[in-house]
Amino acid sequence: GMHLYSTTLQSPTSIINAIYGSFSGAKTQEICVSRGKILELMKVEDATERLVTIHMEEAFGVIRKIIPFRLTGYSKDFICVGSDSGRIVFLEYDPESRSFLKIHQETYGKTGCRRAIAGQMLGGDPKGRAVMIGALEKQKFVYILNRDSE
User: Fold this and answer.
1) DSSP letter at 148?
2) Going by DSSP bridges, is the β-strand pair 17-21/121-124 parallel, antiparallel, or unpaired?
3) pLDDT, tens digit (0-9, with 9 covering 90-100), for 94-132
4) Do residues 76 and 70 make contact, with C-beta atoms less than 8 angstroms apart?
5) Does 72 or 31 have the greater pLDDT score?
6) Of 125, 110, 142, which Cα lies nearest the Cα of 133?
7) Which of 47, 66, 98, 140 is the most exposed place for a label (fewest CB within 10 A)?
8) Pick from 28, 130, 134: which is nearest to 77 by CA?
């Protein structure tokens, strides 16, 4: 059989979204940016005062919007991702495995970057109780966030 492999030689350089928070642990200060389909976690190195990339991961689709959010009682932030997949995904950065872990995902609509399908607008409650995802037209969803044993 024939095996096909597709890869992008040059990664996108323009930053679409930039958020800040404590993603790798309590009292850390990091910046998370999305460039097309790439999610990148950065921090300012104390010694050199330069912005360094901690981790960079490629998604299978277009990242439309990212927001930071913190569940009640937590000391670290999670990343909420709205993409062209028709899903809302909640990610946690794990410093030990140096990767983004998917802690939850909800499917709500069709795929593609459409005006009427949610994914472009994301808003989080400052107290970490709910996240709202919306489209430019029509569709809006509110997800109530609960902490379980995981």
Assistant:
1) -
2) unpaired
3) 999 999 999 999 888 788 888 888 878 899 888 888 898
4) yes
5) 31
6) 142
7) 47
8) 28
